[in-house]
Write a structure and sequence with these properties.
2 copies of one chain form a homodimer. Chain A is α/β, with parallel strands linked by helices and 473 residues long. Chain A has 2 domains: 296 residues, Succinyl-CoA synthetase domains (Rossmann fold); 158 residues, Succinyl-CoA synthetase domains (Rossmann fold). Helix content of chain A is 41%, strand content 17%. In chain A, the strands form 4 sheets. In chain A, strands 9-8-11-10-12-13-14 form a 7-stranded mixed beta sheet, with helices on both faces. In chain A, strands 15, 16, 17, 18, 19 and 20 form a 6-stranded parallel beta sheet that branches. In chain A, strands 2-1-5-6-7 form a 5-stranded parallel beta sheet, sandwiched between helices. In chain A, helix 4 runs parallel beside helix 5 and helix 13 packs antiparallel against helix 14.
C-alpha cells in the first residue's frame, strides 16, 4: 500500500470524528477481572453513560456487566464505528485487521509493548493495516481519548482516583499518558471544562500535528494545550502550530529540555526529544505560549479565561496587609507595575473606607472588611483607567466574610471590563472556596507568586499578540 | 519609669511563660454577640479545652457560655496569670493598669487602633504601664498566640474557617496577622506540628528579637520560622538571628523587599521595612534560610524534616515516564545533579523490573508498578552510595496502587539513611494521599518544580552548614 499524495492522510484525520463521536464502540479486551484495564474501561463506559452502543469483545465471555460479549468484532451484527483495544500487543495487529474488515473507522489502541519496547515490527504492522483501511488510529501505548460531550472516556483509571472534567472549550493533547492523567485530574479539580482530551502515545498513525489539525476545525474547541517530549516530524509540528495558533491559541509544555531529560524521554517514548533551543525559538516565532510545568499550565489556563488586560498596571485589594506586601514584592520582582491610583479613585475610596484605613495600592481594606466593602472597592478599581488588572486577596478565614463574597467575585469576573485574579492562601476551607470560584471561571491562586507568574505571561501575551479577544472562554 | 540595665527586659521575656503556659487566663472583652472577636475568642478557649481556668471579663454580663463573667479583673478572687484583651483601643491602657494591679504577668492585646493608626500616644501609655508592672505584653494589633501543648489559642478566627495545627517542634513568629493566619491554617493543612505560634503585631513591649530569644530556650521548639516586614531595631534582630540560628535553625520570610512594597508595609504596620539588601546580606551572613513566599516557606519546612543529604545527586523513581522527564528538566535547570546509578544498582534493578522496562535514572517502573516494586526500587536506591536524595514520583491515580504504598513511603522516610521527597500531581484523591503522607513527615509536592526548588535550598543548606543533624524534626 502506498499513499497517493496526502489524500488518505486527510481522510484519516477526518475519520477522527469516529474516535471522538462514535455512535457505537467495541471494547476489545473487556474482562470480568476487577482492576484490569479491560474491566475499568468497560465499567467507565457503562457508568459514564456513553452516548452510544457498547459492544464488549472477548472470546472468554458470553456476557460482561449485563452486556452481550462477542468473541470478535466480525461477530457483531450492527454497524460499529469505533473500537478501543486493550489486549496484549502481539494480538493487536490481527484484531485491527478484523476492525478494518468490519468497517470500523476510528480506533484507540491502549496496549503498550510496541516501538517503545523495541517491537518496531509490531508497530509497523499496525501502521500498514491502519493505512489499508483508512483507520484513524490513536496510540498505541496511550490513555486514549475523553470527549465529555458524547460521554466517551477510554481512560482506564478509576473515577474515584482520577476525576473527570466537565464539558468546556479547552482541548488537551498529550504524548505522555502519566502527564495526561494528571492533566485530566487537575482539570476536574480546578473546574476547568474540556472539549477533547487526547493521549496519543506512540503516534504510529496519527501524530500530534494531525490531532491539532483536526481540533482547529472542531467547533467546541476554542484553545489547545499540548504536552510534548519529542516529535518525529519537527517541521510539520511547527507549521501546524503556526497555522493553528492564528485561529485558536495554543499553550505548549515541552519536556525533555536538557540533554539528560531528553535521554529520559527517549527511553520512555522512543522519540528523540530534540534540541530544546530549536523548539523554544520556534515557540517564540509562532507565538504559542510556553509553560514549564503541569501546575504552571493550569495557572495559565485559569488566568487566560479572563479578558485580556490593556497593560501591566496592577491594582491590589486585600483584607490582609501582609499579603498585600508579599504581592507587591512579587509584582516588582517580575517587572509588572503597581498601578498609581487616580485622584478620583482615592476620593471615592476614602468615602467607603473606615477612617483608620489607608488609601493606597495595595488597598488594605482591613481584616474586618465585609463582602460589600470588597464589592465597592472592586467597582472603584474597575472604573479607574490607570488599573489594567485587579488582584483581589481574600483571607477566607476572616470572620466577617461569608458566601456572599463568592457572588461578589463571580460578578466581578463576569463584568469582563478588566481581568481579575484572586489570591487566597490557606487550608481546607480556603481550598473549598477557591474550587467554587475556579469552577465559575474566577482564577484563584494559592500564593501571590503563583498568581504573578501567570499574570506576567498573560500581560506579555496581551501586549505582544494581535488577537484582542478573550482566548480561553 | 526607667529601666536599670536590661534586667527588667529580661524579666519581661521570662514572663512570656505566663503568656504561653498560664494556669489561668482572663478573657477581657468576652461577649455574647456572635462572630464578634470577644465571642469567637471565648468560644475557642472553651471548646479548645484550654488547660487552665478561664475568666470572662465584661461589665455587661454576669455570665457567658456558662461561665461567671466579671466586670473587671480586680473582681476575680483567684490568682490570674495571664490576660487576653479584645476591647476598643482607648479602653486598653486602663484595663492593662488593672491587670498590673491584679499581678497578671502575661498579656496579649489583640485590639488594633494604636500606632498603626497614628495613635502613638495610646501605644506609649501601654508601653509605660507594661514596664511599670513588668508585664510580658504581646501586641497590640495582633492575632496573639497559640500553644497547642497547653491548648492555649487566642486566634479569634473560627476553627471551621481556619484549622489549628497539632503539637510539634516548629515555632512561628509573625509580624502580620493575615500572613500569620495563613501560616496557622497551612500548618494544619499540611499536618505540620507547631510548638508555639506568635503574631506580635506592633511589638510595642516585646519585639521579634525578644520572642526569638525566648524560643531559643523553649524546650519544645526545635526550629523557628519568622515572617517580618520591618523591625525597629535591626542590629538587635541580626544579633539575635546570629545567636539563635547556631542553636536552632531559623527560616525568615522578609516581605517589603522593594521600594513600593516597603511603602505598603509602612502603611500597614507603621514600621519601615528597611533596605532589603541589608537584610538579605545579613541573612546570608547569619546563614538563616530565606524564603520568598508563604507557600515556599512550607515547601522548606517539609523537606527540612528529612535527614540532610550528603550531596546533590538525585535519584528519581517514577511510575509515569513523562513526570520523570519533567523532574529531570527541573533538576537540570536548578543546578542539581541526576545521579549516575552504580553497576551493582543496575544489576539489582534488572532483577526486579519487568523485561520491557528500561533501567536508568529517572527509573521508570511503569504505570502498573505496585507498592512492592516501589519498595524494592527505593531500597536499592537507598543502598547506592551515588544517590544522595530520592525523589519518588507517584501517580496515585494508577489502578495498581493502593494504601500499601503509603506504608512503603512512610517506612522509607522513617529509614532516615537518605532524604526522600514525594511528587504527586493530581486532584482530590491525590491531595488526600499527600495530606496523609505530610502528616507522617513525608514531604510531598504538587509539582516537580516545587519539589526541586525546596530540594535545592535543602542541599545548599546541607553542603554549606556545619550542623549535620536533622533540623526540622
Amino acid at each position: 500500500m502506498r499513499e497517493s499524495g496526502s489524500e488518505p492522510m486527510e481522510r484519516k484525520i477526518k475519520n477522527l470524528k469516529y474516535v471522538f463521536e462514535p455512535k457505537s464502540i467495541a471494547v476489545i479486551g473487556a474482562t470480568k477481572t476487577p482492576s484490569k484495564v479491560g474491566n475499568v474501561l468497560l465499567k467507565n463506559f457503562i457508568e459514564g453513560k456513553f452516548d452510544g452502543k457498547i459492544y464488549p469483545v472477548n472470546p472468554k465471555y458470553d456476557e460482561i456487566m449485563g452486556l452481550k460479549c462477542y468473541s470478535d468484532v466480525l461477530k457483531i451484527k450492527g454497524k460499529v464505528e469505533s473500537a478501543v483495544i486493550a489486549t496484549p500487543a502481539k494480538t493487536v495487529p490481527s484484531i485491527l485487521e478484523q476492525c478494518g474488515k468490519k468497517g470500523i473507522k476510528g480506533v484507540i489502541v491502549l496496549s503498550g509493548g510496541f516501538a517503545e519496547s523495541g517491537n518496531t515490527e509490531l508497530e509497523e504492522k499496525l501502521k500498514s493495516t491502519a493505512k489499508k483501511y483508512n483507520i484513524a488510529l490513536i496510540g498505541p501505548n496511550c490513555l486514549g481519548v475523553i470527549n465529555p460531550y458524547s460521554r466517551l472516556d477510554s481512560i482506564f483509571f478509576p473515577v474515584f482516583k482520577l476525576q473527570r472534567p466537565k464539558p468546556g472549550s479547552i482541548s488537551f493533547v498529550t504524548q505522555s499518558g502519566a502527564v495526561g492523567s494528571c492533566i485530566v485530574d487537575l482539570a476536574a479539580y480546578y473546574g476547568v471544562g474540556i472539549s477533547k482530551f487526547i493521549s496519543y502515545g506512540n503516534a504510529s498513525v496519527l501524530d500530534e500535528s494531525d490531532i491539532i489539525d483536526y481540533l482547529s476545525n472542531d467547533d467546541s474547541t476554542e484553545s489547545i494545550i499540548v504536552y510534548i517530549e519529542g516529535t518525529k516530524d519537527g517541521k510539520k509540528f511547527m507549521e501546524t502550530l503556526e497555522k493553528v495558533n492564528k485561529i485558536k491559541p495554543i499553550v505548549v509544555l515541552k519536556a525533555g529540555r536538557s540533554e539528560k531529560s531528553s535521554k529520559a524521554a527517549f527511553s520512555h517514548t522512543g522519540n528523540i526529544a530534540g534540541n530544546y533551543l530549536a523548539y523554544s525559538s520556534a515557540f517564540k516565532q509562532t507565538k504559542v505560549i510556553e509553560a514549564k510545568d503541569v501546575e504552571e499550565l493550569f495557572d495559565y489556563v485559569k488566568i487566560f479565561n479572563q479578558p485580556l488586560p490593556r497593560g501591566k498596571k496592577i491594582g491590589i485589594i486585600t483584607d490582609g496587609g501582609g499579603l498585600g506586601v508579599l504581592t507587591t514584592d512579587a509584582i516588582e520582582e517580575t517587572g509588572l507595575d503597581i498601578a498609581d491610583l487616580g485622584e478620583e479613585t482615592e476620593k471615592k475610596l476614602k468615602k467607603i473606607l473606615p477612617a483608620y484605613a489607608n488609601v493606597g495600592n495595595p488597598l488594605d481594606i482591613i481584616a474586618d472588611a465585609d463582602p460589600e466593602l470588597y464589592k465597592k472597592s472592586i467597582d472603584i478599581f474597575m472604573d479607574d483607567p490607570g488599573v489594567d488588572l485587579i488582584i483581589v486577596i481574600v483571607l477566607f478565614q476572616a470572620p466577617a466574610l461569608d458566601e456572599r463574597l463568592l457572588d461578589v467575585l463571580v460578578e466581578a469576573s463576569d463584568d469582563r471590563r478588566k481581568p481579575i485574579a484572586v489570591v487566597a492562601v490557606g487550608g481546607d476551607y480556603t481550598h473549598m472556596n477557591r474550587k467554587i470560584l475556579d469552577t465559575y471561571g474566577v482564577p484563584t491562586f494559592g500564593s501571590p507568586r503563583d498568581a504573578i507568574k501567570a499574570i506576567k505571561k498573560f500581560t506579555t501575551y496581551s501586549l505582544t499578540s494581535r488577537c484582542r479577544k478573550c482566548i480561553f472562554r
